[in-house]
Design brief:
Distance between the termini: 72 Å
Helix content: 40-55%
Radius of gyration: 42 Å
Number of helices: 2
Shape: elongated
Largest sheet: none
Structural class: mainly alpha
């Protein structure tokens, strides 16, 4: 197994490489005309602005997608709740999961069907006189309800 070189030798070599790289960069910068350098800087800045705006747009779309998914979840939950309310209103408990197979009740005798009671006619009243009222306003034009908020 080869022995490791001393850290001081490696650090000296690294320092010399960094120094050579920096001097080469300065030399290249001197060779490029200033107007070309300014144009490159401007192009780089414009590219960065474009990139940042694109990133913001993607983030907005992701937020919108997340909100749409949340809205869908809420709508599903509302549908389930309304179904439960309907079941409770009809007296059915089918919204609760059955523990086992449903069993039939033994047949029972049905009571005799009753005829609905006849309604009594309401006594006729004499027409009442009202004070003169202004003519009703014409109806508003029909519009469809705005559902964009949903």
């Amino acid at each position: 197994m080869a022995t490791r070189k001393r850290a001081s030798t490696q650090s000296k070599l690294l320092k010399r490489a960094v120094k050579a790289g920096r001097s080469a960069l300065r030399e290249a910068e001197r060779r490029v005309p200033p107007d070309v350098r300014k144009q490159l800087d401007r192009t780089i800045r414009d590219g960065q602005k474009t990139l940042h705006s694109a990133i913001k747009e993607v983030q907005k779309r992701l937020d919108r997608t997340a909100r749409q998914a949340d809205l869908d979840k809420a709508m599903k939950r509302l549908e389930r709740l309304s179904k439960q309310v309907r079941n409770l209103a009809t007296g059915s408990t089918s919204s609760a999961p059955a523990a086992g197979p449903a069993r039939r009740k033994p047949a029972a005798r049905k009571p005799a069907a009753r005829k609905p009671a006849a309604r009594k006619a309401a006594p006729k009243r004499a027409p009442t006189r009202r004070a003169a009222q202004p003519a009703p306003a014409p109806p508003a034009p029909d519009r469809e309800p705005d559902t964009s908020a949903f």
